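Wed. Picked up where I left off yesterday with EXOC6 protein. The coffee machine is broken again, so keeping this brief.
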Amino acid sequence: RSVYDDQPNAHQRFMEKLDACIRNHDREIEKMCNFHHQGFVDAITELLKVRADAEKLKVIAQTEEIIRCRVQQRNITTVVEKLQLCLPVLEMYSKLKEQMNVKRYYSALKTMEQLENLYLPRVSQYRFCQIMIENLPKLREEIKEISMSDLKDFLESIRKHSDRIGETAMKQAQQQKTFSTTLQKQNNLNYGRNMHLGRSRILESKNEITLKRTFEDDDEHEEEVLTAQDLVDFSPVYRCLHIYSVLGDGEIFENYYRKQRRKQARLVLQPQSSMHETVEGYRRYFSQIVGFFVVEDHILHVTQGLVTRTYTDELWNMALSKIIAVLRTHSSYCSDPDLVLELKNLIVVFADTLQGYGFPVNRLFDLLFEIRDQYNETLLKKWSGLFRDIFEADNYSPIPIANEEEYKIVISKFPFQDPELDKQSFPKKLPMSQSVPQIYIQVKEFIYASLKFSESLHRSSTEIDDMLRKSTNLLLTRTLSSCLQNLIKKPHIGLTELVQIIINTTHLEQACKYLEDFISNITNISQVSVHTARLYGLSTFKDARHAAEGEIYTKLNQKIDEFIQIADYDWTMSESDGRASGYLMDLINFLRSTFQVFTHLPGKVAQTACMSACQHLSTSLMQMLLDSELKQISMGAIQQFNLDVIQCELFASSEPVPGFQGDTLQLAFIDLRQLLDLFMVWDWSTYLADYGQATSKYLRVNPGTALTLLEKMKDSSKKNNIFAQFRKNDRDKQKLIETVVKQLRSLVNGMSQHT
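Structure written out below (tokens, as returned):
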């Protein structure tokens, strides 16, 4: 830049100086070449001499290269051979990792076995192989832990789905039973074949739980079959079993599985406290148990040695004892017969289901007999209420029949036969009240209800017949009898009602033979069979009738006492009114109307009631005379009392109830009559003279009774001077009275000493 930027001639001067410099360098080069020329010549000479040796060296170099290549080739071959040994190990290890990733643990264990036994020993000297060998136990432990986790998940899954599995199995068993029953009904000739089909179907479904769901779509029905595998995935337990078997810990796995299942069994067998309140509680309880044992049966048949028949039998026996204890306890809380019946049906399905899987269930059917007794007890309580309601609603009047249709309706409900009544024209009345056909219908309903429990118990017709008769006997002898006895004792039941009750029990007693026929028709067991029990309705209704009769006598006497209590005698009257007392006439009118009602009673009952009433009336009148609170009696009162007794005798002689012979009924008042005659006639000499003789006119007059009454009259004479006329006209009579009193006292004392 300085050359071009300076003055114009500077470039030329620069070129001149540059040429001068070049010429100087050329001269220096020439000098140097001249100086080294000889050395160059010597070097060329030496090179010419080395040419021959170089040829030799070239041959030697080529030989060494060949040797080196040979060595290298050999090394490569060795490496290839070693790599060929290592590659399968790496491939298997890679395969192992892949199997672990996709959770194919059983295959992974098999791969580990191949690695350890076949591949790794060949290349064990390499470091990476040692690392693999160290990792394999860790992988095994990891597989073991994962398998155990899967097993726990499986156990939780079957615990969760046990109720659904059991419900499915029970439905299938019930459908199978219904199917078999239908086949039997359709063709009895093929009974044996149908039973074979039924058993074969149960065996076919033994390892497969099926649930048929019907889906309706455009009037087309499709059936979907669900298996146990659809409800629970059993693959974990298969994998775990295989894995632990490969690991050599099969026994540990079996013990763990059985221990956990025993714990689950205890949980399944533990019922809810409110299970007895609804049938759903029992259904859930049974479903869980069935599901548990269906799973165990499935495991038994699809695995080798995980569970054994001995183990399942032991587990079932333990469970069966617990189930029976639970059912026995909870069923005792049931007071509803419908709930007990549903429980029975559930137990039957439960037993049939498990029996289909080979579990013994005889003890369950034995339990059903205990529950049957309780079912009968609940039925008896229920029917006791029904009987009470019927008795409460009854009007205790004969059933009025207006026409033929009404008559047929009643006859269709109750087996009544009376040729004499059939001859009568309508309207007419049946002798029993409306409660009789209602009671008869309810007894038949009870038999039906009792029969429901006997169904599906795998019992013979003879046993069912015996059960029905026993339960019916309990209904008649305990429940109905108790209701009748309580009814008879109720205070609002009067004489008319009691009479109707006696008539009702008579007709119910006659209907017992029709109930026996009814049971025989149900069970197809002839009554002439030696094993056939008889109904005890005869004794039941007889006892009730006797109780009603006794209550009639009691109430009749109570009514007589009520009339006696309103008696109002003036025991100091000087002379009688000339007519019987009003209370007594009312009493006699009451007795007449009452005994007219008794015309429907059996003759002996009416006669006994009439005799009892007359005897009680006579006794009450006698007690009235001899009452210790009554201190004095006038002759006028005796005369008035005599008029009342005469009315009683007239009533007795009027034959208020037919069937008495002669003056049998009048004899009820004989004690009063002889006593009053003695005082009215004042025939003491005859009485004292004939005393103790069988032909005595006053044989029924007790000396003590005569003395008591005479002393009352004596006390009265002191105040009212009733014997003043006797003293004026005949003073000896007063002495006679005193003499009679003394003699009566001596007789009484003599009787006391003799006694």
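Quick read: The chain has a mean pLDDT of 80.
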